[in-house]
Amino acid sequence: MSDLQTLAETAKAWPFEQARALLKRLRNMEKQGKPKQGPVVFETGYGPSGLPHIGTFGEVVRTTMVKTAFEALTGGDFETKLICISDDMDGMRKVPPTVPNPESLEAYLQKPLTDVPDPFGTHDSYGAHMGARLCAFLDSFGFDYEFLSATDCYKDGTFDPMLLRALEKFDEIMGVMLPTLGAERQATYSPFLPISPTTGRVLYVPMKAIDAKAGTITFEDEDGTDVTLPVTGGNTKLQWKPDFGMRWAALGVDFEMFGKDHQDNAPIYSKITRILGCQPPQQYVYELFLDEHGTKISKTKGNGIAVEEWLKYAPQESLSLYQFQKPRVAKKLYFDVIPKAVDEYLTFLEKFPNEEPKAQIGNPVWHIHGGTPPTETSPVSFALLLNLVSAANPETREQLWGFISRYAPEASPESHPLLDKLAGYAMEYYRDFVEPTKSYRAPNDQERAAMEDLAKRLRAWTDPVDQGELQTLTFTVGKEHEFENLRGWFQALYEVLLGQSQGPRFGGFIALYGVEETAQLIEDALAR
Description:
Oligomer: single chain
Structural class: alpha/beta
CATH class of the largest domain: Alpha Beta
Helix content: 40-55%
Radius of gyration: 29 Å
Number of domains: 4
CATH architecture of the largest domain: 3-Layer(aba) Sandwich
CATH topology of the largest domain: Rossmann fold
Largest sheet: 5 strands, parallel
């Protein structure tokens, strides 16, 4: 057993906890005489009615973290793969308002998404277009996955064995489903949804007859005639809850995570899988994100952050970190969390090389980077860059680098590409979120006297530019001017000088912006 495997057996990070639970499940299957055949399958599902979003990213990145932890735990004893399946055989319930010429799709309501024309004109169907968008989205992050189309699985025979078994177990499945439904729905419910041979629509109709031996169902079509169809070959699909369990069985899924909104239905999915003669996968339920007001984020409401929006202001790794941290705790996901996420990522990255191996595999960057984090860090925090932009108001990234190079002369855009990207992100974030909310205030008499004193001492500064010494100087001035709470002194500096209530260590800001420049900044603010 390798050292990494030994460490993985007791690692506290949640992906390792899930990896150990998954390994235990596989060992139990072996004891029951049902050893795993083929690769260990990690699955995520995607509803293609809308574009991939931050929840899609979160589910795939978190599942990938568990997959990496499992591979470390088992030392390559198992082949693994990640499947991302698109539920593109679902009927189109409403026309997405964002597509071109939405009225042209009205005639295709309730038809499988793969039978709806592509309004963008790039693929054979709307479902194929959205599947391609999903793959492009996942590819842009470098995920290692296998894409599956539910339509293909229904039509090419992948699901056929389990569909036939579901027909054999029709009454048992109904026994699971009916108690979960109201009386009106019970009267018309069927786990099988036939595709009308006359209209091509997905039909929610009761069955008039089932023939398990023949593998057929009989139902009333939309024209009033009775039709008998085989359940295989893409002639039918399953209702979404039975479909969930059937898919687990048909694809041999060993691990799947999903949001808390699925939690109440998870036992149903598992029961369906067992009825079909298979073992349900290891499951992990994560909490949903909230907006700044504590309301659940919704694609329809548009009250969250799109992945593209986050990536405009911060690197992908910061978003991965936010997904890694406390997945079972409801967290607010809005623009104010971005700077903190970036600096936390930088802190974890900087710590990693000097940590003991046990601490390293608990460090989020181990999981974000698949066990091999990059060695490059940033000598300047994101918060400090934001304050520098606020004070210097540079027009270009090159102007910003003029300040950075003085603070970190060993750094350049070529030698520190991460810092260069952060500089660009800081300018974008400042312009969109900080500048519009800046509110300068005048100092009171005590604050004015202290700031005048600090500016005078900075003008007289002859020692090397050291952020620790400059922090001490600022602290000393506040103490000598008898601020009861030195936090209030530092807050006053930011409110008077930069028009905001908080920032990073002021000594670091002075070192980055410049001693003389900070003195001038104070004098200009007091004169203003």
